[in-house]
Amino acid sequence: MSEEKRIILEMLKEGKISIEEAEQLLEKANPGESINDKPKKKPNSKRFLRVRVTEEDKVKANVNIPIALAEVGLNLVPKDKLKVDGKQINMDQILKLIEEGTEGELVNIDAEDDGKNYKVNIFID
Predict the structure, then answer these.
(1) pTM of the entire predicted model
(2) How far is CA 75 from CA 58, 68, 70, in A?
(3) If you ran DSSP here, which 8-state letter would residue 42 be given?
(4) I want to staple 123 with a disulfide (CB 3.0 to 4.6 A). Which of 33, 57, 58, 105 is the partner?
(5) Is 102 exposed, middle or buried (0-12, 13-18, 19+ CB in 10 A)?
(6) How far apart are CA 40 and CA 20, in angstroms?
């Protein structure tokens, strides 16, 4: 990111300029490049983190969480508690994928415990 963009965004963050003023300044910083020209990803408020846990092909848990809430909640879960069959789930990596606008399946874990087969799927849509 250029120094000009960083300064403009910092002024916006501090409330020194409005969104419209920031857009105008960013346009002047990069003539010919419009903010509206960039591909838009779905806003997080319309996206969901979905977690499905199955045991022997029977759904045991099906959780649908708005991304905005999931981002907060995922940061509250102790990192060492996120294990399936001894495999650590890297929530930092999942949060990074969410922030980048990734959609589709993020995690697919097959596990076995006491002779039963379990699956954990985490995806975004």
Answers:
(1) 0.49
(2) 29, 12, 8
(3) P
(4) 105
(5) middle
(6) 18
